[in-house]
Amino acid sequence: MHQERIEAIKREIAKADAGNPEELEAYRINYISKKSVVGELFAAMRDIPNEQKRAYGQLVNEVKQLAEEKFQELIEKVNSSASKSKSTDLDLTLPPSNIHVGGVHPLTATRQRIIEIFERIGFNLSEGPEIEDDWHNFTALNFPENHPAREMQDTFFLEKNPDIALRTHTSSVQVRVMENQKPPIRTLSPGRVFRNEAISARAHCIFHQVEGLYVDENVGFADLKNTLYHFAKEMFGKETKVRFRPSFFPFTEPSAEIDISCQLCGGKGCNVCKGTGWVEIGGSGMVDPNVLENCGIDSKRYTGFAFGMGIERIAMLKYQIKDLRLFTENDVRFLKQFRSMV
Ligand code: 2NL
Q: Which E.C. number(s) belong to this protein (predicted)?
């Protein structure tokens, strides 16, 4: 009875095979583990009459040895077939799997293009802190004591008395340049600025600005006009027209708003330019003599012009982006459209 069962198991073991790790594990569970058929033969020992135990034990040990020998054989077989298939799976002639190359953010691309245009005509780059004191953000720039920008609802103040705030423009960087350098000064200050505004399609509390400053002897309004005309043609195309509208800033006198002919309709009038044919790209003016003096520059000898533009605004006009919020949402469907830019 036992003899028959043991012979049957021996035959099974002799026939057993495994072609992969799963089949090998199935064999181990069936013939090696405690709960295997061989394990069961050992467990049955307690029901064998004492005088037969010796002979039975000998038979079961033979089966156990057989099962283990077979197991070693199968391990070697599975291992060698695995290493064989590994080396054949590697096909060096296949094209590489998709490499996901990112792109430059449209604001970065726009900033780089603006920098490139001004660097070519002799402007260098300047940077400064995003957290500013009252002097560099307001007072040196000729802001009167009661100016609305100094109010809590327009500016993010970190401390009051003495006032410390997130800079509201990068003019503060240019004040620092004038304090530390002698004319001639030709500098461009791109950077992040902060204003306490409700977020909408047209406004954000964080945006990017680039300001330019040129201070030397005999710098006049014609230099301002020609420099910005050159910029507009380089940025938007050589057919672009520029117009200056009288305006007011505390830090420039006279001051002018800079408009370019509408990119979409070419000046005929459409919904982007609200039928006027012109769109605003920034502000400009001759540096107020008070500002030069505040920064230690002799306003009798030196004059200068300055301008400021929103980088978001330039990018929106150049790429026909309708909503400011797209720049910060990081929706890949938006960003992917600029993937080719470097
Ligand atoms: C705008 C207007 C402007 C300036 C910025 C400036 C800087 C110094 C002295 C005088 Cl240190 N002016 N910058 C001048 C006129 C306009 O920005 O619409 N920005 C987005």
A: 6.1.1.20
- Spatial contact of 232 and 212, defined as CB atoms under 8 Å apart: no
SS (H, E, C) 118-151: HHCCCCEECCCCCEEEHHHHCHHHCCCCCCHHHC
Tokens of 199: 């977020």
Calculate ∠ Cα 7-11-13, nearest 5°.
Answer: 115
- Tokens for 340, please give them: 């080719």
pTM: 0.73
Atom 4 of ligand 1, residue of closest alpha carbon = 307
Cα 319 from Cα 260, distance rounded (Å): 15
135's CB contacts (< 8 A; 6+ apart) are 175
Q: Give the distance (Å) from ligand 1 centre to CA of residue 254.
A: 12
Strands 124-125 and 185-194: parallel
- Binding-site members are 253
The answer to whether residues 130 and 156 touch, using CB atoms and an 8 Å cutoff, is no
Ligand 1 atom with the smallest distance to the CA of 287 is 10
Average pLDDT over residues 24-32: 93
CB 279 within 8 Å of CB 259: yes
Q: How remote is the CA of residue 131 from the centroid of ligand 1, in Å?
A: 18
CA gap 16, 35 in Å, rounded: 18
Centroid of ligand 1 to alpha carbon of 211 (angstroms): 6
CB of 140 sitting under 6 A from ligand 1: no
Query: Is 252 close to ligand 1, i.e. is its CB under 6 Å away?
Result: yes
For ligand 1, atom 15: residue with the closest CA: 284
For residues 228 and 280, the answer to whether their CB atoms sit within 8 Å is no
Q: What is the pLDDT of residues 94-132, one digit of tens each?
A: 888 887 788 899 999 999 999 999 999 999 999 999 999
251 lines ligand 1 (CB under 6 A): yes
